[in-house]
# Entry
Amino acid sequence: MGISGRGADSGRKRARAAEKGDLFDVLPDELVVAVLCKLSASAESPANLLAVLVVCKRFNRLGLDPLVLSRASAESLAVKAKSWSDFSHGFLKRCADSKNREACYILGMIHFYCLRNRRSGLSLMAQAAIRNHTPALFSLAVIQFNGSGKSKNDKNPEAGVALCARAASLGDVDAMRVLGHCLQDGYGVRRNLAEGRRFLLLANAREFAAFLHSSSSSSSPLQCYTNRRGSLLKDLDLWMRSTPPPEPHPASRFMVEWFASRSEVLKREELSLCFNSRCGRPETRRHEFWLCSACSLVKYCSRACQATHWRSSHKAECEPFEQWLNVAAVAAGGGEDEAPADGGAGRDVAILD
# Structure
C-alpha cells in the first residue's frame, strides 16, 4: 500500500529528528492528538487550551484538529461577553462544526438570546440535544414552555414535558424539578401527584448528593447537624436550605454579562430578565415569563429558576409569604417548603399580551 506524499514527508522529518535526538518530533501525530484530546477535555479555562496552541507550530496545527476541538470542555470554551469578537465567534463555530456539544449549546444560546438569531440558535441547541446534552434539552424545554421567540399562542407544553423527561432521565436536576411540577399541575401531561412529588424529591436528593460530593468532611455543615439531637429529616432539611446554588453554565454566565451592559435596551423594549441572577435568560416578547403568584413582583423563565431564587433570597423578600405559607401548610399537610405555584412551567399568570 502506497504512502501519501504528506505522510512520507512527515516520516522523513521524524527520522531526521530522531537522528538529532529530538524525541518529541519523533512522536506520531496520532499520539500527540490523543494527549491534546485529554487536555482539551479537562481544561478549566480557555487559557489552558490557548496556551498549548502557541507553544509551537505542531501544537497549533494538531490542537485545532477536529478530534481535539470535539472534546473541548465547557470551561475551555467559556468566552466573556466583553471579549466577544469575530475571533471568539469563529472559534466556537469551528468547535461546533467539529460536533462539540458544549460549543453547540453555548453558541446556540448566544445566537438565540443575545444575537436574536432564533433559527440558528435553535439548530445549534438541537445538535447538542441530539448528543444528550442535558442543559440543551432543558433549554429547549423552556423555549417550548414559554413559546420563546414566537407568540404566546405558540407555547407547546407537551413538547416541553417530553424534553424535560429526556433531560431528567439523564440526571438533570432542573428538568426533574420542572417535570415534577408539570405532573403535579397536569401541565402538558396527565396529572399524577404521586409521580410529580417523586420527581421533586429526587431533584432535592440529587442536589444533596452533589453538595455532599463537593464538600470536604472537615468543613461540612453535617458535622454540626449530626452532633445535634433531632430527626434525620430535620437535619437533611437544614442542610438542603444551606446548599448553595450550583455554578452556572458558561452560556448562562455569558448571558448575564451580556445583558448587564444592555439593560437599557431591554427596558426600552419592556422586556425582563429572569430574576434568578445566575440564569441570564431574557424575555423574547413582553410578559413572556412567569410571575411569582404570591407577590407578582418577580419573573422567572421556569420553575427551576424560581426554586433557586426562592431558596437563595426571595423567600425572605416575598411580602405576602406569611399569608401564603399558612394556606400552603394546610393544603400540603405541612409538606416541604416550596415556592408559590405559578412560576415556570405551571399555570398561566393573569397577564395578557
Notes: Residues 216-230, 332-336, 343-353 have pLDDT under 50 and may be disordered. The radius of gyration is 24 Å.
